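Bug report (template v2)

What were you trying to do?
Predict the complex of my protein with pyridoxal-5'-phosphate.

What happened?
Run completed; filing so the output is reviewed.

Input:
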Amino acid sequence: MKKRRSANQHSDISFDEDFLSASPQSRTAYRVALRQAEAVLLRDYALLTRCYSGAEAADLAEEIGGLEVCPEEGRGLESTLDLVGSSILRHSVVVSDPTCVGHLHCPPLIPALAAESLISATNQSMDSWDQAPAATYLEQRVIDWLGEALKLGTQADGIFTSGGTQSNLLGLLLSRDDFIQRRLGWRSQEKGLPPNAGKMRILASANAHFSVQQSAAILGLGQDAVVPVATDQLGRMDVAVAARFLDALTAQGLLPFAIVATVGTTDTGSIDPLSALADLADQWSAWLHVDAAYGGALVLSHRFGNRLEGVGRADSVTIDFHKLFYQPISCSALLVRDRRAFDTIRLRADYLNPEENEQAGLLDLVTKSIQTTRRFDGLKPFVSLHSVGRRRLAAMIEGTIDLASSTAAMIRDDPILELAMEPFLNALLFRYRPDGVPEAVLDAVNGTIRSRLLISGQALLARTKFSGRVFLKVTLLNPRTERHHIETILTRVKQAGDEAMLMF
Ligand SMILES: Cc1ncc(COP(=O)(O)O)c(C=O)c1O
């Protein structure tokens, strides 16, 4: 660190070039730092030609576990970034590689990467207006746009969250407190759970995301409060079964208060029948939470937007921008149809969001959030949507859904492969299944195929269970994945399967 005269009385060190400011030294330091980061990213990451280097977990743990974290004297940014490039970036998952098709893990749009640099450099904190004056209104604007796009009505509102898990938690928290206040005449925010909270029940399809159960546990209702409803052959919640459960639970003196519908289940992309579930929720005065973490991006598509029919009748909706909206992690939102839902979690801190602010017309977003300090994540979808436009984004999403259909056809036509079900969105399950092989062997072989392809960097597929058996999963979020990539992946799956068969 250079020594200079400084206003800091306790030290003669200037920290000018450590932080971004108007000074020429600072701006130069920033430019150099970003150029160095860009050079490392382009060299050690963008040029990678496989979805994964193939490094084994134990080797990575050993190498990275030995890194010095905080030397007495800094090693300088360039050499630190070089170290990050060789130790970390080269062994990262290449999310934009066309064969990286495992999880709901998208390649991020370049405009969003540009927005990320503005988000971190300006470091606005979205809890109070005085820490994020313009950012507050931009996030609110994106939320209002989303509420309109989902047809949630004039009283809609929402808040950005860290991901679908937190959005689901917040939606179920609001539903719990609404029920407890409105129907049980109790205020859980002050008094905790009421004596009969143990009777409260949530209905969700057996294929709903595990964060529904996790939320019930965190909310003090217990995982067993979630009643799994059977699905039809296409993985959608069976409404008749849900209706019977509501009758039966009520007859037992239990209190079903919320129904969770999913738009795009994690494994098969199935979409629950929203309108029928909204009717059922109306009939039982239950809260309808729609987990559209995955499928919510269909609002952008004129071709497939009708698959969201009924979503506007939901009481709350989870949308993940870091899935099919191609945003870098993390970026999610929870929307509500009636903004008064947030009143049940409203808390005030004198230093942050005092009543006077609201009276003065200032918006402190913390009042709707279960986070305090929060990143300005709303900028990323704004920059992406505004710069790329609906039409092009819709074309990306639609292309992946079309590719999933043709992938399903390729699998169906292959005698060695078995398709679990037709895809609704762009996720599909299949397995290597030559005739006459016992199920237990097929499970082991398919698990081996998945790990072999990953460790050889040939393809990143996920592994899951379907009807109790091991299946491979492809999630075709990447608009750069084309038919020939799928043909290559399926050929590799069969080769790896043939080799694995020799082991069992
Ligand atoms: C349907 C669904 N809901 C919620 C989540 C959780 O989202 P996140 O990982 O952003 O917390 C996922 C994650 O894959 C999901 O598929």
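What did the reviewer find?
Residues 104, 163-165, 168, 209, 211, 262, 264, 266, 291, 293-294, 320, 332 surround pyridoxal-5'-phosphate (CB under 6 Å). Confidence is low (pLDDT under 50) at residues 1-6.
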